[in-house]
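Tutorial, part two.
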Amino acid sequence: MWFLAYHHCCLFALNAFVSWIVFTDYDMHALIIVEKAKYIYIAGFFLTVSPDSIQLVAEHAAATNKVFMMNLSAPFICEVFRDAQEKALPYVDYIFGNETEARTFAKVRGWETENVEEIALKISQLPKASGTHKKITVITQGCDPVVVADDGKVKTFPVILLPKEKLVDTNGAGDAFVGGFLSQLVQEKNIDECVRAACYAANVVIQRSGCTYPEKPDFN
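Running the prediction step on this input gives:
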């Protein structure tokens, strides 16, 4: 299943447990949308469905100077689907994850550290297939600061603290975080603004049951 956000031609690929999907079988309409997209984000879970589709889109993004992004998604993705993940990584410009996923990523590669800042930096320094865009790593840590590794430097950002009694459901918080981040990235905002929107979106979601939102946002 593809969810398409047309604002600034941003394309999202979400795993919908449909193993029959192969990108090359899509009709011309879907291919035209991919051609128009400037930003492409694919959840790591899609590695369990069609890694060939990911690779095709990743190579297209590199060849056409588009921004390609992925999420580590879950520790088991880093373990069981390491080979497919490894193949896609050189094409990834932004990689998202949480601290558990980041530590698992490091462990399976034999990195002798559990320090999230060090791991984020090492991920950002992995080889790139194209020199057009640098690789940026964004790691969340629950109520601890967000870690961003960019251009050989690490920066941390405080999250919006929430009283325990207001915490309802953390499901969807990571997806909301990425959505908030991308909402600013496609508007060419700086990293600080992207993280600010990401933290806002995650904060809203964890105060509600399920990944739901109020009718109108109050982000400004």
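The first strand starts at residue 2 and ends at 5. In part three we will examine how such features are distributed along the chain.
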